[in-house]
User: Which sequence fits this backbone?
């Protein structure tokens, strides 16, 4: 699926929830199911700055696609990362760079996050895109 | 068991709550339960009125105008200084220096001590400090070559006094400690700390930011050299506070900032400084803030600090008992003497996750390291959830907190 298609799918899923409680329960479930980052990458180098809970992200190229793995010590944060990974992982670097992030507003994620979490979300997306930029530069 | 109904005798919380307009508001569709009082307290109508009155009726610059408005503003500002003096039983009015808050006050002292310290001297700070109380001293040590030494704490969150006595020596020039720990609520034995420091000739600065809303301190009796307070922790506005200093120390310390108000005479060759307190009050101060601080003290004194602390003790005892009944919940900071703060975690759950769910239920708590990372490192935790109570909180709000924590736990585990 393209990034656009995945985003539409997520927007659809979130539109079914009636209240914040269901949304959070869903995000917590996603967090619990997040494929964990390999232990060797849970180091200071892989921590995203700007998140108040710890977030580690690792990126690697498989064939012509960038694959992200991540972890956090907070479960709701993990749920947010799980959504981002679903959207951006296994995609071509150029597509990650070009991707719009409007879906975050559409699923009402930002308004339901505390300001510190919302800042963390921005930092996370920035970091994923930076990885994609780096890999794209290698390809060029 | 704490009886929910027997303790309200001295303080009518239903009447008090009517004074706080913000307590009526809804957050995320729920009635606000405000339990982040250690970060900042809410503002009663009486203080809001003082702020409005100032801007509507006598907003003017102080200490320099010839006109009536300026005189009225000056009078009100100096009356506030007098109220603060009286509240803390400070000897002289000019020993009350208005600052922007505790952090500013501590930096003022740390900056001044640059002139009194040399290599080999030592500054003692407690392990229970807020970052704002650690960094200025580290900077002072970098400037002077003095050494920072730490008074260690126990697992209960109490200072190890025998270690403190061991650390004190003729090398100790300054001892710094908070009156109450912001992260854990521990009330430190400052009488003993001050007395022992004076025996070796060291000066003592006590940070009263967390204490002043709960404990009415007699600063002359304490014989403390410096004491700091922030108005916004005790029903006043943000951006204003005081440094109390003994006259002999304030005379010795050089001015902290240059500007208007703090000078006696200025030529391009030489400036002579104004007398206390103006020597430390460069520029136009937070006039309205100072006046509102006075109104906040009036408000709290009308209720009475004895009634306030008795009521808050009952709240925190009840909250502690109810929270501890939750399986896997651990409270950090179990000192014998503490204020109305409960800092806790639930096993295998990150404090941010709990805080996020509580917020959705209208409950405001603080999560994180509370600007006291060394304490969190000591307990080897990323942070805690901190509920801090004020005299306008109710037993029913404690019940709501406990229910919300249970709900969060069931969602997150």
Assistant:
């Amino acid at each position: 699926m393209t990034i656009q298609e995945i985003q539409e799918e997520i927007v659809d899923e979130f539109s079914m929830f009636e209240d914040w409680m269901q949304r959070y329960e869903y995000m917590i479930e996603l967090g619990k199911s997040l494929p964990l980052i390999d232990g060797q990458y849970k180091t200071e180098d892989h921590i995203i700055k700007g998140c108040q809970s710890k977030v580690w992200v690792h990126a690697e190229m498989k064939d012509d696609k960038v694959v992200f793995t991540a972890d956090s010590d907070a479960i709701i944060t993990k749920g947010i990362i799980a959504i981002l990974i679903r959207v951006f992982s296994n995609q071509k670097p150029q597509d990650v760079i070009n991707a719009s992030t409007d879906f975050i507003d559409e699923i009402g994620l930002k308004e339901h996050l505390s300001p510190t979490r919302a800042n963390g979300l921005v930092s996370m997306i920035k970091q994923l895109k930076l990885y994609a930029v780096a890999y794209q530069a290698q390809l060029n | 068991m704490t009886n929910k109904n027997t303790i309200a005798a001295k303080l009518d919380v239903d009447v008090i709550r009517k004074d706080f307009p913000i307590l009526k508001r809804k957050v995320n569709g729920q009635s606000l339960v405000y339990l982040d009082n250690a970060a900042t307290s809410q503002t009663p109508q009486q203080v809001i009125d003082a702020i409005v009155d100032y801007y509507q009726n006598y907003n003017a610059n102080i200490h320099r105008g010839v006109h009536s408005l300026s005189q009225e503003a000056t009078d009100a500002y100096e009356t506030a200084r007098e109220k603060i003096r009286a509240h803390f039983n400070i000897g002289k009015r000019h020993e009350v220096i208005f600052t922007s808050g505790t952090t500013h006050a501590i930096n003022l002292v740390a900056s001044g001590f640059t002139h009194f310290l040399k290599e080999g001297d030592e500054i003692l700070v407690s392990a229970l400090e807020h970052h704002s109380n650690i960094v200025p001293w580290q900077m002072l040590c970098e400037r002077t070559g003095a050494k920072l030494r730490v008074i260690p704490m126990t697992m209960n969150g109490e200072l190890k006094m025998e270690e403190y006595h061991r650390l004190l020596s003729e090398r100790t020039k300054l001892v710094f400690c908070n009156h109450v720990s912001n992260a854990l609520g521990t009330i430190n034995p400052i009488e003993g700390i001050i007395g022992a420091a004076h025996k070796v000739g060291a000066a003592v600065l006590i940070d009263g930011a967390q204490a002043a809303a709960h404990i009415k301190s007699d600063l002359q009796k304490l014989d403390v050299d410096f004491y700091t307070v922030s108005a916004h922790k005790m029903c006043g506005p943000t951006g204003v506070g005081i440094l109390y200093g003994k006259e002999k120390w304030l005379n010795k310390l050089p001015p902290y900032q240059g500007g208007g108000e703090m000078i006696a005479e200025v030529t391009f060759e030489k400036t002579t400084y104004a007398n206390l307190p103006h020597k430390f009050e460069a520029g136009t101060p937070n006039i309205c803030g100072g006046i509102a601080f006075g109104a906040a003290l009036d408000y709290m004194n009308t209720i009475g600090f004895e009634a306030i602390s008795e009521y808050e003790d009952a709240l925190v005892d009840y909250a502690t008992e109810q929270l501890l009944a939750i399986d896997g919940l651990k409270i950090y900071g179990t000192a014998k003497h503490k204020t109305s703060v409960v800092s806790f975690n639930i096993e295998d759950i990150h404090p941010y996750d709990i805080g996020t769910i509580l917020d959705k239920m209208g409950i405001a708590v603080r999560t994180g390291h509370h600007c006291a990372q060394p304490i969190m490192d000591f307990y080897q935790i990323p942070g805690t959830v901190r509920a801090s109570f004020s005299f306008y909180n109710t037993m029913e709000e404690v019940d709501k907190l406990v229910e919300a924590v249970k709900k969060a736990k069931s969602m997150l585990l």
